[in-house]
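Name: Uma2 family endonuclease
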Amino acid sequence: MTIAKSSEREITALPDHTQLPDSDGTFVKNFQEHPQSILLTDSIQSTLDRLHPDKQYAIGQDCGIYWRLTEPPEKGAECPDWFYVPNVPPTLEGRARRSYVLWQEFIPPLIAIEFVSGDGSEERDTTPLSKVQKKGQKPGKFWVYEQIIRPAFYAIYEVQKKSVEVYHLIEDRYELVAENERGHYPIQPMGVELGIWQGQYGNLDLPWLRWWDSEGNLLLTGDERARIEQQRAESAELELQQERERAESAELELQQERQRAERLAELLRSQGINPEEL
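Structure predicted for Uma2 family endonuclease:
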């Protein structure tokens, strides 16, 4: 990151997450972005809880990552649609985070994800800060992630193209991650894979960005797990009911067989034949 090393006195003089804007004033680009963020968070929650039994991690959804002090302040921030930072407290002094401030925390996100609404050029812009000419203009988003914020993984998800690109930071440069045999992209420090899943979430049937475990099993949301458990319970109840019906049917057949035997015995006796001697 490009913030110069400062003394403790200077660091405490810089604004913190409560003093910086928590929005850049732009609208969410489409109705799919909000449920997409929730889907990513909900389905990865149990995995992160296993990775962090102390609960020391933070997830940002369309929240600012401040990397440079500017005027206005939001020009010195990027707002990934989704990001995860390991080994940081989920709250600061008991207060919910309003943004993630690098000059306070220093730990970069492990992964940052951008949802493309345009043609993808903004998310792939590599214009460095040194080439910015106009006042208030920001350097390229790709450059900021690669050179300043430096998440180990950067993903660009395009719902219209049903695709995702995943980059891994290697020796200060992002390199494309190759898809595996399942068409997924391994995020090894998390023990998961990222990929595209076509299906219905909420009331939208779309190519969603989702997580799988390292064996290729889809990570489910809480609602999906609850529905599966309900289906299992209903299936078990149905199987139990069918078993009861089979037992009742077997008992009925046994009773009918006994009745037939008794009628035959009575018929033999009426003809002077002892059925017990046969």
